[in-house]
Design goal:
The protein contains 11 helices and 7 strands. A hairpin with a 2-residue loop joins strand 5 and strand 6. It has a 4-stranded antiparallel sheet, with no helix packed on it. Helix 3 packs antiparallel against helix 4. The protein has one domain: Uracil-DNA Glycosylase, subunit E (3-Layer(aba) Sandwich). The chain is of the alpha/beta class. Helices cover 47% and strands 11% of the residues. The protein is globular. This is Uracil-DNA glycosylase. It comes from Methylobacterium aquaticum.
């Protein structure tokens, strides 16, 4: 059972859904730590799927994901679910929720992740094939900077408060899932996952980095990654050479992963 959920369940269930929607830190009652203008707040994202064959990594849950996870874990506990079941439900329900999910599914399908996993489409990773995926973040619990979602500055590797969370969360998950495909979404998540490679928890061949983060701010990069826009129409903020190279590298690694999986079952 999660020590964090055991600690915070009374606070979460005592709050109304309206209070959670208004402030996912519940007026600071869920805060785990702070330094300067950085704050780490609890939300139920600690569940790990031990059967996962793919790990999808964001930078940190944002306020929207925190609200969704808190609301779902509250509903589950109030309905009588065990803490472990409530955590599993909250994790799948809230991970990459909102418009980000559609963009992420489209990119995963575009490079053929679903074929490597033997499923019809990546969308089922949130439903019938949830046992194949572990959703996580470089920073497991929501981080806010001056009350706004943390977006990678200051560096998560050079900031003690953030590096401690990386060491306690992502490093543990890398040890639990050392043979899965790891897909970091965006450069900051990739920085964290590649730190796990540097520590030899993972190998470079299993990391599919270079995918744009599936947020609305990256709409142009996502459209180009998916082949929905041409180079000629891109703004200067989008580097087509880098995106093309990343996409091709992902395809090569997925092909190797598929060959290894086929050999293991032959």
């Amino acid at each position: 059972m999660s020590n964090f959920l055991a600690r915070f369940a009374p606070v979460i269930t005592a709050a109304s859904e309206g209070e959670i929607r208004e402030d996912p830190t519940l007026s600071g009652r869920l805060v785990l730590g702070s330094a300067g203008d950085l704050t780490i707040s609890y939300a139920p994202f600690e569940h790990v799927v031990p059967t996962a064959r793919i790990v999808i990594v964001g930078i940190t849950p944002g306020a929207e994901q925190a609200r969704n996870a808190l609301l779902e874990v509250r509903r589950a506990i109030v309905a009588g679910a065990s803490h472990s079941d409530a955590l599993a439900r909250a994790k799948v329900f809230a991970s990459f929720s909102g418009p980000m999910r559609n963009a992420l599914v489209a990119m995963l399908d575009h490079v053929g992740v679903h074929r490597g996993l033997g499923i019809a489409g990546a969308g089922s990773l949130w439903t019938t094939h949830a046992h194949l995926v572990h959703f996580t973040s470089a920073l497991r619990f929501p981080v806010f900077r001056a009350g706004e979602n943390y977006r990678g500055n200051p560096s998560l590797l050079r900031t003690p408060l953030l590096r401690a969370q990386l060491d306690e969360g992502l490093a543990e998950e890398a040890r639990i899932l050392p043979h899965a495909i790891w897909v970091p979404c965006g450069p900051k998540a990739a920085e964290a996952v590649n730190e796990m490679v540097r520590r030899r928890h993972l190998s470079a061949g299993q990391v599919l980095d270079g995918m744009p983060h599936p947020s609305g701010a990256n709409a142009e990069r996502i459209a180009y990654f998916l082949g929905r826009s041409s180079r000629e129409g891109l703004s200067v903020k989008t580097d087509p050479v880098r995106i093309d190279a990343a996409r091709e590298a992902m395809l090569v690694k997925l092909a190797r992963f598929g060959e290894m999986a086929a050999g293991a079952t032959a």
